[in-house]
Amino acid sequence: MILLRTVEALSGGEWVTTGEWIDVHDPADVRTPLARIPALAAKDVTRAYDQAERGFAVWKRTSPFERARIFTDAARLIRERIEEIAADVTAENGKTLAEARGETGKAADFLDYYAGLARQGYGTLLHDARPDTRTHTQREPIGVILVISPWNDPLVTPARKLAPLLAAGNAAVFKPATETPLSGLHFARALHDAGLPAGVLNVVTGRTAEIEEALLDDPRIVGITFTGSNAVGNRIRRRLADRNIRFQGELGGKNASVVLRDADLPAAAKAVVAASFGQAGQRCTATSRVIVEQPVYEEFARLLVTEVEALTIGPGSDPATTLCPLSSPKQRDSVLADLNKAIEQGAVAFTGGRADTEGDRAYGCYVQPTVLADVTPEMAIWREEVFGPVLAVRAVDGFEQAVEAVNDSDFGLAAAVFTRDLTAAHRFADEAECGQVAVNTTTTGWDVHLPFGGFRDSGTAYKEQGEEVLRFSTRVKTVAIHFGA
Q1: Closest alpha carbon to 145 in 476, 478, 483, 473
Q2: CA atoms within 13 A on the CB side of 440
Q3: Residue-wise DSSP of 99-131
Q4: Cα–Cα dist 16/106, whole Å
Q5: Cβ distance 433 to 455 under 8 Å?
Q6: Which residues are within 8 A (CB) of 293 and not within 5 positions of it... i.e. 6 or more apart?
Q7: What phi and psi values does residue 272 have, to the nearest 5 degrees?
Q8: pLDDT reading at 2 higher than 70
Q9: Measured between alpha carbons, how far is residue 316 from residues 205, 367, 370, 410 in Å?
Q10: Residue 122: its pLDDT value, please?
């Protein structure tokens, strides 16, 4: 009999278990679970908020230099454990080891970056009309924040959310995705081992339906940061409508790359394939639409298909793999349903279009990398997020039509343009209705210090990353000091 690995949750500085468990599966082969996590109950969530309330009282008064030291030590621990952590990211999520190592390194980078911000302080010296008076603003932590992260980037998304809010002095209750909890628990363990005070970070694992009310309705919540689907994000937003709670949502996307006639077509094809099929398309910033000027459409499509067909499908643990499985049977089936619908509506697959059940891949969550042509703006595949290795291609006549096609979307997260024309590049940056705009590079890959977030239905006004995130995780106090007689 194989002894199933057990991973504990974190509450009040202690690693806790329960009598019920949830199995975690490897999407490369779902036959045997690889670990189990506690299925916490509502009372356990309430206890986590109790601990967070106590932790916040201590942490908000902790020296910013001590916070920075803990973050720096935690970053070092993550880098020392990179192979162990990356192996778990790959095992539970499916992405390649190269992608998992990159994600692990980026999680450490977030800690280092916000350690630096914690040291420098946040505030502004202001002139005052009153004589002998000096006025300044100072940013303060807001309290206990609920963090809900998705399964597609199970380590770097928690790092992106937790590092800034903890660095600013807040406490957190963190709910990782049920499908991929091991990665976030690695992040929590690094902070715990670096000396984070008890209760500052609490990790709750469980079935969402059983603990949702306790998670969302606790009166001590002052903010919620969520990454996931629009359906769930909007449900949370409606639930908070009559409460004074900040909501930061990073939601859906339908990201487009534009290839103009003067572009370096081979370079553009490589960049688009990297942005579309990395992590099997399971990135919020993945390119899922390509808009090509008519004169170069056929040549670019040929280059694109050649690059896609050179991808190697397999388990993320195989160093030869360049296209990993989808993260769960549910996600695989959802992508296949979207593909079938697109083909029924008239789209044509240049390549791919089906599940991949070759050999041992029959036991995993594999979908062939797919390029769809004959796509119209009315088709669901052009308008709705698929979150898989699927790329839809359309031809347009000129720059204006290309920009119009980019902006003809409910979403506005990321877009890219490939061109040698500096005027076109600047015009595109000005006219694309997206929070992230790239020129001659991928829609993916935004570093820790770069503000990140979308427009329209892609998210809320609060940005993530960089210093912009402080608008969500801190409050501003204005202080006037009269020093005259």
Answers
A1: 473
A2: 13
A3: HHHHHHHHHHHHHHHHHHHHHH--EEEE--SST
A4: 28
A5: yes
A6: 259, 260, 261, 395, 396, 397, 398, 399, 402
A7: -65, -40
A8: no
A9: 25, 14, 19, 33
A10: 81
Tokens of residue 357, six digits? 């059940």
3-state secondary structure of 405: helix
8 HSE (CA, 13 A, CB side): 10
How far apart CA 396 and CA 403 sit, in angstroms, is 10
Q: If you compute the radius of gyration of the chain from its CA atoms, what whole number of angstroms results?
A: 23
By the 8 A CB rule, do 291 and 409 touch?
no
Residue 15 phi, psi dihedral angles, 5° rounding: -90, 120
- Residue 3 above 70 pLDDT? no
Q: Which of 299, 302, 259 is nearest to 405 (CA)?
A: 259
Would you state the pLDDT for residue 1? 43
Q: Report the candidate in 214, 208, 218 with the shortest Cα–Cα distance to residue 39.
A: 208
Q: Which of 357, 256, 272, 275 is nearest to 306 (CA)?
A: 272
Query: Locate tokens 């593909």: which residue?
Result: 339
Q: How far is CA 107 from the centre of its chain?
A: 12
Averaged over 429-448, what is the pLDDT?
Answer: 98
Percent of the chain with pLDDT over 90: 97
For 193-222, the pLDDT digits (tens) are 999 999 999 999 999 999 999 999 999 999
Contacts 24+ apart (CB under 8 A), 233-242: 236/148, 240/216
Task: Give the length of the chain.
Answer: 485
CA atoms of 233 and 230, how far apart (whole Å): 5
Instruction: Enumerate the active-site residues.
Output: 250, 284
CB neighbour list of residue 140: distance below 8 Å, 6 or more residues apart = 60, 169, 474, 475, 477
Residue 415, classed as helix, strand or coil, is strand
231 pLDDT band (50/70/90 cuts)? Answer: very high
Alpha carbon dihedral 106, 107, 110, 115, in 10-degree steps, equals -130
d(CA 393, CA 76): 43
* Residue 233 host element (H or E): helix 230-239
What six digits make up the tokens of 482?
A: 């009269």
Q: Are 32 and 4 in contact (CB under 8 A)?
A: no
Global pTM reads 0.96
- The DSSP call for residue 296 is G
What average pLDDT does the segment 104-121 reach? 95
